[in-house]
Amino acid sequence: MKVQGKMFIWLAVFILAVAVVYGVWSKEAAGTTALFMAFGLSIMIGFYLAFTAKRIDAGAMDDKEADVADDAGEVGFFAPHSWQPISLAVGGALAFLAIAMGWWLLYFSAPLVVIGLWGWVFEFYRGENQNQ
Asked: How far apart are CA 8 and CA 48, in angstroms?
């Protein structure tokens, strides 16, 4: 994590330099603001990674002599299949379409969003995947 933290901090320094040069040369507010916000996001991520790297054990990515296999292991648990994202995506698409077509469309999209979100959150509390 130390390497990633340093990379994001150096990226933030670069974005800050670009933002200053861009702001002075262009005198354009929107792009300059976007670059300064990108600097803020990069510095937050870099600080978090550097801060966390001090408190955990060094991983294989921090060892210059490490092999790829040294970082192998269990990544985590991933759902084998789920129909809930489809309901959530259709409901979200209809909700965004409601902005363009009319707010009445939210009456149809809100239940789809709620059903998809509820089902996705509680997917492993019932049914055949209950003990996963």
From this structure: 10
